[in-house]
Design a protein that fits this description.
Blueprint lengths: L10 H13 L23 H19 L3 H23 L2 H18 L10 H18 L24 H6 L2 H8 L4 H12 L4 H8 L3 H17 L7
């Protein structure tokens, strides 16, 4: 597992810009969480590759359901980065995130033969397993306040515009600390939408909400995130 280095390069930057827009009382513009760099399996691929990729994933899932280990390994390679980011930003320690991701794919492998497509997306199914493991972890009483010293500065880009001054003070460490203080579902929404590049529909499947409810949840989450930042940035 490569830590969070596999996150879409624009993920944290997109979230920082959204928060900066709130802090400077400007209209919240792009809420599609589009990113630069390599597309996430949860992001929207270019139109000409979308059908090909969907066909490939469907074929791999069908093979894995019949016990093909190589096909399941290919699915792991395709989805593990997105699952890891989703877990990591909820538990904040690399070791625990790696354990929970491993357990996610172990449970998926164990249940592959019973997986049914009926209205389900395979990626959403994996995220749901991961989400339930996180909930179980925090319910178990083993969870403790966790901190991390990971450096995210390598993912920061150069920005221009009226939010520059706010963005300069809005470090990724501050943003991540504030993110961990949000209610669980708001955290999950922001991680999926901004850091994994998931669509509204994909996020709705995992959270068990309607598309409209996810849009409202994202709006509230960004505003609440802004309120959790130090006074000097507000």
């Amino acid at each position: 597992m490569s830590g969070v280095d596999g996150a879409p390069l624009g993920g944290l930057e997109a979230l920082r810009c959204a928060v900066a827009a709130v802090l400077t009382s400007r209209p919240l513009l792009a809420t599609t969480a589009s990113t630069s760099g390599s597309p996430s399996p949860w992001g929207a691929p270019p139109p000409h590759t979308e059908d090909v990729e969907a066909t490939r994933v469907t074929a791999l899932v069908d093979l894995a359901r019949r016990g093909d280990a190589e096909a399941f390994g290919a699915l792991y390679d395709h989805y593990s980065g997105a699952v890891y980011r989703f877990v990591y930003y909820r538990v904040s320690t690399q070791a625990l995130a790696e354990d929970l991701v491993s357990e996610t794919f172990f449970r998926a492998l164990r249940s592959m033969s019973s997986f049914q497509w009926q209205g389900k997306d395979f990626g959403a199914w994996l995220m749901t397993i991961a989400r339930n493991l996180i909930i179980d972890h925090y319910k178990s009483g083993r969870a403790r306040l966790e901190t991390t010293t990971d450096d995210f500065t390598g993912h920061e880009g150069v920005t221009e515009g009226p939010e520059d001054e706010v963005l300069a003070g809005l470090t990724n460490d501050l943003l991540r600390t504030a993110l961990t203080r949000l209610p669980a579902e708001q955290q999950e929404c922001l991680v999926m939408r901004f850091l994994n590049g998931s669509s509204i529909a994909e996020t709705a499947k995992v959270l068990g909400r309607s598309d409209g409810a996810v849009k409202q949840l994202q709006f509230r989450a960004v505003r609440n995130l802004a309120k959790l930042l130090p006074e000097g940035l507000r």
